Amino acid sequence: MASAFISHSSPDDRYVQEFVQLVGSLGFDEVFNDSHSIRPDEYFWPKIEEGIQKCDAFVVILSQASVQSYWVDKEVQFARAKGKPIIPVRIDNCKLPASFDGRDVIELKSTGGDQVNIAPSRILRHAPTILFGRETQLAALDAVWNDGTNVYTLVAWGGVGKTSLVSHWVSEHFAKRGWPGVERYFDWSFYSQGTGESRQTSADLFIQTALEFFGDENPLLGGPWERGERLAKLMRQHRTLLVLDGIEPLQYPVTDKSGQAGRLKDQGLEALIQSLANENPGLCVITTREHLTNIESVGTTKEEKLDKLLLEAAISLLRHLQVVGTDKELEEAWEDAGGHALTLQLLGRFIARAYPDRDIRHYKEIGFKKADLKRKGRSAFKVMLAYENWLKSAGSVEQIELDILRLTGLFDRPISPGCLGALRAKPAIEGLTDNLVDLDETDWNIAINDLADRDLISRTQPSPQDLQPSVDAHPLVREYFAEQLKKEQPEAFREAHSRLFDHLCETTEHRPDTLQGLQPLYEAVTHGCLAGRHQEALHEVYVDRVLRGAEHNGFYSTYRLGAIGTDLGAVAAFFSTPWSQVSLNLKESDQAWLLAVAAFNLRALGRLSEALEPMGATVRIAESATKNVSTDSDQIDQSTRVAMSASNLSELELTLGQLTQAVAHGRLAVKFADESGDQFQRMLNRTTAADALHQSGTTDEARQLFSEAEVLQEKRQSRYPILYSVQGFRYVDLLLASTEQAAWQMVVRHAPGLHVFNALPSTFNNQCDDAEYRARQTLEWHHDKYPLLSIALDHITLARSALYRALLSGDVPETLVTQVTTSLNAFRKANSLNHLPKALLTAAWYYATLGKQPDEAKRLLDEAEQIAKRGPMPLYLADVHLHRARLFRDRDELAKARVLIEKHGYGRRLPELEDAEAAAVNW
Questions:
Q1: How many CB atoms lie within 10 A of CB 845?
Q2: Strand, coil or helix: 400
Q3: Parallel, antiparallel, or unpaired for β 470-472 and 184-189?
Q4: pLDDT tens-digit series, residues 236-279
């Protein structure tokens, strides 16, 4: 009887049945397939060796997943060593491994346009073979896949079983059935990037990896929001099943005091999910511990709260784990554990191992308390404490297992074989690795397999270059041992992190070019800070190797790779309290620099409210430092720093609608700029202060500062005697203010297109002429080297001037629609969400009046409102309500506008609001 062995990676399970039939047609009577031929409780490698040794032919399935698989490669090498005939079968466009170059390969690649493309999974390794008590939830997942739901969110405490449920569903309902109905599959576990409220996890690597998988030509192009929307567009080209597991590290926690609890911090991920919520031929499944906000109003999204394990399921689970007791006794244990799935699983494993009689009544010795049940899964900690105490006293083998479990507390992600090797190396870390340094590989593997069999850890597929699998544990297990290690063995805790810091620094390329390549250095920064080696982690790793310097030609990771969110995670490691207190282990100058970097990154990521604290601290530190300088040169440098940081703070406060503070810090920026004597800072900061004054309604002082700034500009750059770029736009915004108000008076008092002037009054005409001259002049000066944002600001000036002229004179030029669309497109190209609402509001005004497309106007206002709320940018939000009220005669919107204008002291809009309210009497 001839037999064959099929070697494949788990994402390719869908092909197994097809290959069984193929191999059978070639004359083989028996087929060994590792996903069906090995029972779940068997130690798999001996069974695989046995299967390969007995086979007459070895079939290896080559795919994108399998060519990266350590185990497939190991099986191939073992088969070759045993002299087995090898039949390679390629099922997709993967690059053949070097060992198969020049060999005949059976090609079974699909050539059709609807080829199924399955990404290597990060969650299927967590799929339990048996799932207890989740039949209703599995049916619900089947339903949302077929009923037009776009985004389905599962919410539950840690350890309730979210990942197990979804991974089981994907494995049993799709992977093992040939992926029915799925054209593309992609999953990501954010638990593998760190957990806990203090962690600043980023979606940068996920977005980049997904863009590459879905065929984006330049995954680094654009800002986070643009990349997220682009990814959603690519996913919509196919029926895609997307699983995002454990996104809570990227959400604002429930303790957030700014009203953003549950909202995503990451712009790229938020853009992706919001876009898919609105349109998605496939399904996005999300698991999280917290309610996900900002998509709940979309009708094609659903949220399900995953509750505790039902009694019948809990009893079945405990009996499956061979725990002994009556149904009543098992019910009491279920009730005291709060029905928490992980707690019950750990409890069952513990009792079955620690007590010869396996009696469930031993659970009473653990001492569950109701307070534990209120701490979101912390009842599992009680079981872990009992397990830890038993392992301490049970014997040498158990002590080894305990030491391995303690190692998981040093990590917030899977542990690579290299890091495990570094920790096991001599000399031993006293109290932590004494039992591990002399342990041979056989005993180590036995201990690892024993822990995995008891669900205390899991083994993950390593990269091809690794000889051992990575080790992972449930986030709650890692969290428990992290707390215990830090509290009970602080010296060992620091020494272990120090060793990991050295290992990662020594084994990683000095300056990796890719975001993936930089990951070990980001990890090194975290371990270095936990070891108390902040200064080395900052200068030798973060600044030198990640940023490649902090000068104008540095900041490689952010400017070249766009990894702003990932960088922010590294910066957070240096903070004892994000974002207010940097570690005192760092020099004061380094503390100030890190506050500034954190503020910059937070602002760039759209996390404006969070950026306020570190930016304010930067100003205070810089201002305080001016009192301790000893030379005139140092005084000038320090005054410049204060001016720059105060100016940045003023701009941020203006965006957040804190106008009183924005004016105060704008004036402070002018004061220190004058003290520094820096002509550029003197000009720039006058426009910053003037803009804040203008928006607050203090027009005369604002006009005076703009005039002074333009005089300074002419002195420092005689070739460019007028303000330009952002500074020029701020001035033009004030110059056009009265013309804008007159145009709005036309809209609110009369039907669109009906003008009351026989000719455009000279005042308004002159203002429009001046604005247009400035915009055209600066575009001409800098046409070949002008930043995209500056170009967009000049185009909106031209569009606004033309729109105001047309509304006031009744003379509508044919070029007006082109000017409006050019402006809007320029802002989208510039990818500046902080400024895009300007163009959206202007375009909405045009389409609601002269453009005669009210639906398009409403759509543009909705988009502007979404951006304003996300900021939050309340002045824009007030503008949206005011525009909507005036364009569509909506008194409710007018009332909303008044609330915001009064709340934020938005004096610039007060005259327009009063005009609209007077006109609203006749609406």
A1: 27
A2: helix
A3: unpaired
A4: 999 999 999 999 999 988 887 777 889 999 999 999 999 999 99
The pLDDT tens digits for 790-823 are 999 999 999 999 999 999 988 899 999 999 999 9
Indicate the residue type of 375. Answer: R
The predicted model gives 616-638 an average pLDDT of 89
CATH architecture assignment, domain 607-721: Alpha Horseshoe (1.25)
Q: Residue 107 gets which letter from DSSP?
A: E
pLDDT (0 to 100) of residue 753: 46
What mean pLDDT is predicted for residues 133-150?
Answer: 94
Half-sphere exposure (CA, 13 Å, Cβ side) for 558?
24
Residue 399 to residues 414, 432, 450, 492, Cα–Cα distance (Å): 22, 10, 13, 16
Q: For residue 552, what pLDDT is reported?
A: 81
CB atoms inside a 10 Å sphere around CB 78: 17
Residues 6+ apart with CB under 8 A from 577: none
Q: Is the pLDDT assigned to residue 696 strictly greater than 60?
A: yes
| Least reliable range by pLDDT among 158-172, 217-231, 292-306, 580-594 | 292-306
**Which residues are CB-contacts of 921 (< 8 A; sequence separation ≥ 6)?**
none
Rounded CA separation 126/164 (Å): 6
Q: Encoding tokens for residue 117?
A: 């493309």
Sign of CA dihedral 540, 542, 546, 552: negative
Give the count of beta carbons closer than 10 Å to the beta carbon of residue 502.
17
395-488 CATH, one of 3.40.1090, 2.40.160, 1.10.10, 3.40.50: 1.10.10
The per-residue b/e assignment along 687-716, b for 16 or more CB within 10 angstroms, e otherwise, is bbbbbbbbbbbbbeebbebbebbbebbeee
In the CATH scheme, what is the code of domain 3-112?
3.40.50.10140
CB-based contacts of 857-862 (< 8 A; 24+ apart in sequence): 857/887, 858/884, 858/888, 861/887
User: Tokens at residue 136, please?
Assistant: 């209703």
Asked if 504 contacts 517 with a C-beta cutoff of 8 angstroms, the reply is no
How far apart (Å, rounded) are the C-alpha atoms in residues 312 and 133? 7
Strands 575-577 and 581-582: antiparallel
Q: How far is CA 643 from CA 615, 684, 690, in A?
A: 13, 10, 15
CATH of domain 118-305: 3.40.50.300
Closest CA to 5 of 78, 96, 70, 68: 78
Domain boundaries defined on the chain: 3-112, 118-305, 395-488, 490-573, 607-721, 727-920
Which tokens is 68 given? 């990266």
Residue 838 in tokens:
């300007």
For 283-327, write each residue's pLDDT tens digit. Answer: 999 999 999 987 766 778 999 998 888 999 999 999 999 999 999
Level-2 CATH architecture, domain 727-920: Alpha Horseshoe (1.25)
Residue 197 has pLDDT above 90, yes or no: no
Share of the chain above pLDDT 90, in %: 63
Matching fold, domains 3-112 and 727-920: no
By DSSP bridging, strand 575-577 and strand 151-155 are unpaired
Of residues 327, 308, 311, 238, the one with CA closest to residue 276:
238
Q: How many CB atoms lie within 10 A of CB 345?
A: 28
As a whole number of angstroms, the distance between CA 849 and CA 851 comes to 6
Kind and range of the H or E run holding 116: none
539 neighbors 502 (Cβ within 8 angstroms): no
pLDDT tens digits along 40-76: 334 567 788 888 998 988 989 888 778 877 788 889 9
User: Sign of dihedral through CA atoms 868, 870, 873, 874?
Assistant: positive
